[in-house]
Amino acid sequence: MTTNIDIIKDERVNCYSVMIQLRVAEYLEMVEKVFNDRGGLEGQRDTVKTTTAIRIRKRMVEDLKKGAILPPIVVGVITSEDKLSTLKQLDRDDFLNLITNHPENISIIDGMQRTTALYEAQKTTDIRANKVRIEYWIASQVNSLIYRMLVLNTGQIPWNLRRQIETVFKENLKELKEKFPDIDIIKIDDSKKRKNPRQYQADRMIELFLVFGSRKEKVDLQERLADEFTRQDFIESVANPNFTNIFYEVIGCLADFDSALSAYKNTNEEGYFKEGKDLFRSHPACIGFVTSIALYVQGRPGNDYSLETQNERWSEIKNHANKLFEKVKEMKHSEISDFLDFPTLNELISQKKGRTTNFERAFFLEAFKVLIDEDFEVQVMTPCWRAY
After folding, report:
1. Does residue 186 share a domain with residue 129?
2. What is the radius of gyration, based on Cα positions, of the chain?
3. What global pTM score does this model have?
4. How is 304-329 classified by DSSP, letter by letter?
5. Which domain, by its residues, includes 48?
6. Which of residues 111 and 349 earns the better pLDDT score?
7. Which of 106, 228, 273, 320 is deepest in the core (most CB within 10 A)?
């Protein structure tokens, strides 16, 4: 067995590229858990099942049985900063121990089809001793993997932006939970519905991440050109090393607003928005809140602020927002009712027949832009609701 291991550091994003050869049996054992979890991401579509994909995979299986060598499979791994700093001193065995000891930190970034073909081929042919090349991308932050993936990914089948982000988003959710343990992320396969403030669906959290990075309330990933522009905007956002941390804090800010408003309970209210917790039960409201902050902090797409300016503007928003949240917490029930002014919101939001999602996203984007423009110093939310 070869002992070769090739390690190169990507100085741009503090990420290591590690190329290694494994026996097929070693690789399949290493990724067994992540493969069974459909690539190691929350809600990722598993192996592509289109007619063309099935034909390609069938041919791949036949080639493997005849001794073919696959292109390198790309695996992403998140590890601690301490372990990352010692990576270049590791030999092959130590490196593999580092990887295999924490299978939950592994994501198959590029190679689900090839991994499936390996599984299928080994059922009927003994290819366990055959070699496969694996390129590991090792980082201490998901931000580094996302940047490297979007800029440098050379997968044979181009994925749209959402699919690529989904590949590593389970690590984002893990980091978010570590930073805000009291935020409840409801997994995609969980039948539980939101009942309380600070509860959010995992798949919707992915979309909040996308709109935060693209700085648009609607991300059109079906149209190829629009997806390319969005990808470039996202790359500019992720270039800020503090990008994911700011995103987590924005979600924490949203959750704090959600908690403060939840004290208002009024089942006699007419319309969609009845109680305080109903505001951010609305996904378009969450979209509008996150996008408005993204635009203020990062700048409009194509006019990106410097990293220093972004961090300053986010600090400014945090301070203003926290003052408002504390003020709301001290309000009496009737005062929160006046502050929210749900009758006006319900009347305006219901004017659009069918309450289309795009209308609501644009509505709440303009609403929360007003809140930011006013430095969160509003007596009532009425001017926000009337902004669109």
Report:
1. no
2. 24
3. 0.77
4. PPPHHHHHHHHHHHHHHHHHHHHHHH
5. 5-152
6. 349
7. 106
